[in-house]
Amino acid sequence: MRKINEIFYSLQGEGFHTGTPALFIRFSGCNLKCAFCDTPHETGAWMSDKEIMQQVAECPARTVILTGGEPSLWIDDAFIDQLHQLGKYVCIETNGTHRVPASIDWITCSPKGVPVVLERIDEVKVVFTGEEDVEPYASLPATYHYLQPCSCRNTQEVVDYILRHPFWRLSLQTHKYIQIQ
Ligand code: SF4
């Protein structure tokens, strides 16, 4: 059994896969307690893999995004194998404090001031709270490095920073702009 906060079908609003239709599986709970956390993830229901995979199988999208909370607390190789057997492309959004199954297709790491233990990262996505907070993450071994405004409030500041530090790319929370989940 795995504790699930919600499962919903929408478009990925952020980062490399922005605009991609995906089934989001939001797991309950997190090992961190960030002051700015606005994710209502603590509540949830226990679901069997059979119940979860039934919803996955019914979704027309190829992409499944494991998110939270912190999804790495809840998943294992067997879970990822089941998603692959249904033909899904499996992405995870993690804070990087726990290892994840190597078979996951795409790893998005959003570090939160705690050491990252991941050996492979496809994209780093950092919420921009100030220049001094961002630079330590530039050295993480990721293919893409994104900066994201903090709840759409400091977008111009982030744009200015990226223009001065073109190593970074901009990630917008487009789902908030178009008011979808
Ligand atoms: S790591 Fe993410 S989900 Fe966990 S407390 Fe921090 S912001 Fe919230």
Give an account of the 3D structure.
By secondary structure, this protein is α/β, with parallel strands linked by helices. The chain has helices at residues 49-58, 77-85, 131-134, 155-164, 174-177; strands at residues 2-11, 21-27, 45-47, 63-67, 89-94, 106-109, 121-127, 142-148, 169-170. The protein has one domain (2-177): Aldolase class I (TIM Barrel). It has 5 helices and 9 strands; from the N terminus they run E-E-E-H-E-H-E-E-E-H-E-H-E-H. A 9-stranded mixed sheet has the order 3-1-2-4-5-6-7-8-9. Helix 3 links the parallel strand 7 and strand 8 (142-148). It is globular, with a radius of gyration of 16 Å. The mean pLDDT is 94. Residues 30, 32-34, 37, 39, 41, 68-70, 95, 112 line the site of iron/sulfur cluster.
What order do the helices and strands come in, and which of them pair?
Layout: E1 2-11, E2 21-27, E3 45-47, H1 49-58, E4 63-67, H2 77-85, E5 89-94, E6 106-109, E7 121-127, H3 131-134, E8 142-148, H4 155-164, E9 169-170, H5 174-177
Parallel strand pairs: 2-4, 4-5, 5-6, 6-7, 7-8, 8-9
Antiparallel strand pairs: 1-2, 1-3
Iron/sulfur cluster binds next to loops.
